[in-house]
Write a structure and sequence with these properties.
By secondary structure, the protein is mainly α. The chain contains seven helices and no strands.
């Protein structure tokens, strides 16, 4: 029985290195191109790395079972420490990302609502066709100024369009608040997954250090 187990060790080692290589390739595909200033990218990155945590964990265990060379075993021990640290770092990364996503969304909606209010005030003050044409030029500088026959009719059309945009933005704000619970749930899921994975890597590091110190 012991001899049959020894024949399986190379297979464990091969399977482990295969899983670790596949995870590394997948990780590079997730990281490139780097976009760490984008909170949506950071949050998605953390989520995808946590979802793939079983692959490097199993790969590392398989390699440790099958690896008999001291220097590689020692390297894998330190690699488990690095993996634990990286997964634990996903916790603050995901929390920071979701907070910034919410702040950016709220700021964008508030800015657009403020712009609509300013346009409404300008349109209400406009009296002549030239005033309306100037406002239209500011709204869309690329477009050719249209012929304005009745400025009052155009004013009403513009105000109606702005009111519709305002209601749409208010609906987006309400939807953002309703989706906050889902975002918090997803963040908690990512954080717990990262904590569990990171802790497991640290346990592997601790166990392997004890073996190396024997």
């Amino acid at each position: 029985m012991a001899q049959s187990h020894s024949h399986l060790e190379p297979l464990f080692r091969l399977a482990g290195y295969t899983l670790l290589t596949l995870f590394l390739l997948d990780l590079l595909a997730l990281l490139i191109p780097f976009n760490f200033t984008n909170p949506a990218w950071e949050f998605q990155l953390a989520n995808q790395i946590v979802e793939r945590a079983p692959v490097p964990i199993l790969g590392l265990i398989f390699v440790l079972i099958g690896e008999s060379q001291f220097r590689f075993f020692k390297f894998l021990s330190w690699l488990s420490l690095l993996g634990g640290a990286l997964y634990l770092l996903l916790v603050p990364l995901s929390i920071s990302a979701i907070v910034r996503i919410d702040q950016q969304s709220s700021a964008q909606i508030a800015t657009r609502l403020e712009q609509i209010q300013q346009l409404k005030e300008q349109i209400n003050k406009a009296q002549t066709s030239a005033d309306i044409a100037a406002i239209l030029s500011r709204i869309n500088p690329q477009a050719t100024p249209p012929e304005i026959g009745n400025p009052q009719v155009v004013k009403q059309q513009l105000l109606a369009s702005l009111s519709q945009n305002e209601r749409s933005l208010q609906a987006q704000a309400a939807s953002r608040e309703n989706n906050l619970g889902t975002q918090i749930k997803n963040t908690i899921k990512i954080c717990l997954g990262a904590l569990i994975s990171g802790t497991f890597f640290l346990v592997i590091w601790q166990k392997t250090r004890k073996i190396l110190n024997q």
